[in-house]
Every structure is written in structure tokens, then in C-alpha cells.
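ENTRY TYPE: protein
WANTED: fold as C-alpha cells:
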Amino acid sequence: MTSRLSLTVLVDNITFTDHDYCGEAGLSFLLETSGKKILFDTGLSGLFLANAKKMKIDLEDLDFIVLSHGHIDHTGGLSTLARHLAHAAPEGRPRVPELIAHSRCFWPKEKEGQKNGSVMREEEAGRQFALTLSDRPVWITDNLVFLGGIPLQFAFERTDPGNRVIHHPNGKTEPDHLLDDSALAYRSPEGLVIITGCSHAGICNITEYAREICRESRVTGIIGGLHLISPRPRRLKMTGEYLRKLQLPALHACHCTSLAAKITLADYSPLQEVGVGTKLEW
């Protein structure tokens, strides 16, 4: 029997006027497929729990938590989630979902001298969840894969770390090239669905790697942040041309994608609106 994937946006920067949901500068999706419930990112705070409650979605029976990368706007709700699961557990025995992330996800990060990494350290995450840290792809179900480290194939998607730094466990501080940025790919009968947090690795790099890992050239959908806030014109043009060649039925760009970038990308790909409460199925 062919599996299906459903995705609900629990947190995004954008909200809709006809729904009583709240937004924040973060991202969190709930995925359901093959009988598994997967929380993809936890937003900036515990807001994802409040929105899920309004949507009548139960998050006490999560099977997996997947982190796209270690920035606070994607990991900020981890501590709140751990407390929620502990409080909801009968007789103090909380369900322990598996947490999947890149090996660098919990390394301390700074930008312009301010901490912008996960508020939960790796040791604490290991106490609260069943921790799987991997630079390699991790198959969650037969058709859903965490991609691990993303190879950089397209030069136009390379970025300067600028004043971003990351602190290695051995005490060394180095420029943060955001090597922990990853994504999910789902194999549907119509082609791949690419699910991103911020796409710091570049949406073209992510998509090409997903096609390689899944041995599927068709892409039927992309949803998530594209980190095109104020991109160089050449990068935006090259990204648009790449997306046009994919012949996507729908592009759901959200979170860290600026309005100007969306307007430009709409000339290359069928851009669709996204916000808290959006529900999609493949």
C-alpha cells in the first residue's frame, strides 16, 4: 500500500486573518506518514504547542523530532516540549521520541557576538530524548529520509560566514559555515517532496542531494524556508532558473524568504501561500 504524507504548519512567520493562530520568527511542522508522527523543528518558543492545541492536534505521542539545524528559531521550543511530555506522562513515565539532527546541531553558535544556537545542550537533549546525531542520511520510514550533511554542488549558493562563529567541543572557535543545515525528503508516487527549515545549505544543493539519495529525479513539491532574505541578484536568478527546470506543481516558500524574493520566484515557479495552519498532503 502506498504511504501518504500530511504536513501541518504549526509555526511560521506568517499567520492568516481567518484563523486564531499566532506566528513568530521561527518554523515548526508536524508530519504524519506510515503511522509515524514527526515534529520537524520547534520554532523559537513553545508557541507550536499552543497552536497545536488550537488545531486539536495531540503532540504527546510523537515518534520523532527532527531538527533542520541548530539555530534558536528552530530549536527554541525543545525545553518546553520536554516539560510538556513529562507533565503529560502517566505515572511520570514520558514517551521518549527519537531526536534526529546533524552532529554539529548542538554546538554553541554566535552571530555578531550574540548567542543564536540551541538553548538546549547536547547532553541535556540526550537525557530528554533518544538522540541520533548523524552527518549521513537517516531513513525515518521507507519513504522519508533525513539528509544529513548537504554537499555544496552549486557555487552560487556558497555564502560567507561573516561574523557567525561556532564553538567546537574541543574548545576551538571557527567560522560557522552552517554545516549542520539539513532537510527532509519524502518519496511520493509523483516525485520528491523537499521539506526545509532554512536552506542555509542552498535549496538547489539540498534538492540535488535529495534526488541522489532517493534515486528519484522528479520533484513534486518544496516547502520551508529558503533563506533568501536579501540575496544577491545572481543567486536569486540562478535559484529561479533551477526551480523552473524542476517544473514544480507548487513551491511553498516561507519563514526566511523575503516578500521580494517570493515575488521574483513566482516568475519561475508556481508559488503558493503558506502560514500557520496550512495543511498539505502528498
About this structure: Residues 116 and 280 are 30 Å apart (CA to CA). The radius of gyration is 18 Å.
